[in-house]
Design goal:
- Pfam families: Fer4_13 (PF13370).
- InterPro entries: 3Fe4S_ferredoxin, 4Fe4S_Fe-S-bd.
- This is Ferredoxin.
- A hairpin with a 4-residue loop joins strand 2 and strand 3.
- The protein is of the alpha+beta class and about 60 residues long.
- Helices cover about 25% and strands about 25% of the residues.
- The strands form two sheets. Strands 1-4 form a two-stranded antiparallel ribbon. It has a two-stranded antiparallel ribbon with strand order 2-3.
- The protein has a single domain, classed as Alpha-Beta Plaits (2-Layer Sandwich), CATH 3.30.70.
């Protein structure tokens, strides 16, 4: 089963992922970076929309 992953070094704090799927993504205000709060995932359509909306392509499915 694929898990959701996010490369924080690539994240620029765009926040689209958090706005689209706050069930899976959180935001660290101090670092201004998103992170995955639920790696096992959630609504796949929302997660895929978050992946597609990320300007740095730092969110991905991990096997």
């Amino acid at each position: 089963m694929a898990k959701v992953a996010l490369d924080q070094e690539e994240c620029i704090g765009y926040r689209a992922c958090v706005e689209i799927c706050e069930e899976v993504f959180g935001f660290n205000e101090d670092e201004e970076k998103a992170y995955v709060i639920k790696p096992e995932g959630g609504p796949e359509e929302e997660i895929q929309e978050a992946i597609d909306s990320c300007p740095t392509d730092c969110i991905y499915w991990e096997d």
